[in-house]
């Protein structure tokens, strides 16, 4: 038996795994997966998803549920037909070149994924910006983390989570906001449980409209009204100022902008905060006191803050609390965003999003564009702002974007407002889908499908929530004719180069994933995330955190310990943004506030986790959860099918009674799309959700839609 050290492909905790295989070459077979005892994220533990990974790569799954060959659709009305790689690659290059020649580079868009490896991200980014000449490249991380990116940049000066997992064990107060950590990041939650067992005095505050498993574990559960987080954070800050719980010396020495924020929160008294959030004044005061007066306070936050039309402002309002109370830059203290996907961080680092450039650079900054152009050896970088996820599909629906290259994600399930997304895919002249699994909702709209290799078959790197870069390694040969994502991109790019840069040396002369990784590394030199001191060989030995510049003896596990922040003057910024209600409101026609979220045992659209029967044991199908009193008051019946209707569309699902759901609220798991709800002509959960997005982060408000519910 052989053991291959790799990383779990599910969530942003980034657990290390050992993949046990027998047989060699084509006959190799995975017989088990174990937690890597030496990986500092999980120390050998795995959750239900990680511990069943081997079942997602059995010979049967690889044969029946994977895309194994490239295929085209000769016309939109015909089925996909298998084709060889060379012909397919050339045809894609020809079609992209023709669209670019006729409509310009911005008629092409790339929609990629936080589940790609950093090497893949780099390849797509270089193709889009360096060769095609468009900033229209965005990632499904837009739905996940873009509010956290903007929050860190506005407040602290750089997109760098300042804390690390060890802070969980050193904190005296955990302030968990908008995160059901017990289900979405189970191994971190195990660490929290273990930490509290050792330190029973540790206070845990959970901010969530729903009483989740995480909330059950809290000393104080703040079940606020959906979308009212800023009113809570500003109310807590008001209390801290009034009670003298702020750290005036820290504010004076290390920050700017406090006077403006103080003026803004003057009217957000605890009673006003209580009115807006639906909480009790005493709860707000208690949370403020624990946050400010605990020796160390660490906040963990995730989609509840990020997936909001005020996502960036929610992030900065929470960071304001850390800055005002000096709860940052010390062991066990700081704002710590949890990433949903395994490599959302790598995408941020490599600039694989419309609003970013490699090495945490900014596409709106001419000097940054010139630096990247020089690094890549291209004449100039495009300067027209790129379209972010929702905008990209809206532009396609208007006919402005003619070609979409989609990789490792399933927008015909996961984007909000599915009616618009599907109209966009239908209107495109060319939809390229690069994907490992067969039969996703998006495949029905694809003109070309490209089989990608996936976990246990490919090599590269990912970065987890605590800035730790881990190697992903192959234990099996790729299934069928599937290929590594970076290699698929390289092959198309080289054909496009032949037309656009005849006779010039290739920008994509890569034979191994280490080569694009080295280019990525070079883009980080001198930047806040500098990994100039790392190499693939060092990552082979152990996962490493950034920054790790050339000559450094090690990484910085915790940032800003010297009180020097990443803004040019070294000072962090208080951001004074007022509380704003959600983009759409409940009214008599749509009286319930719907939120969506993760189940413990499923992952995203279930392409991978849906191949494992035992992961359905807890939740065999989707159900709309509502409070039993709301069910009774509306004359509904738990267990019966109900029609959920938002301003965008309907969905028919069973109803479930759940006392953890607040009054006039409803909750749906995010995982079921049309392919799982087939036969009812449904679009899946995101038929209901809304595309309104945060003006700064451009992240859509997936956590709030006004809906009605009635018996079918
Ligand atoms: Fe994988 Fe996340 Fe579970 Fe760890 S916690 S095993 S990374 S899904």
TrEMBL record:
The keyword 4Fe-4S applies. It comes from the Bacteria. Residues 1-61 form the 4Fe-4S Mo/W bis-MGD-type domain. GO terms for cellular component: membrane; oxidoreductase complex. Keywords: 4Fe-4S, Iron, Iron-sulfur, Metal-binding, Molybdenum, Nitrate assimilation, Oxidoreductase. Its cofactor is Mo-bis(molybdopterin guanine dinucleotide); [4Fe-4S] cluster. One of its GO terms (biological process) is nitrate assimilation. One of its GO terms (molecular function) is molybdopterin cofactor binding. Belongs to the prokaryotic molybdopterin-containing oxidoreductase family. NasA/NapA/NarB subfamily. This is Nitrate reductase. It comes from Roseateles chitinivorans.
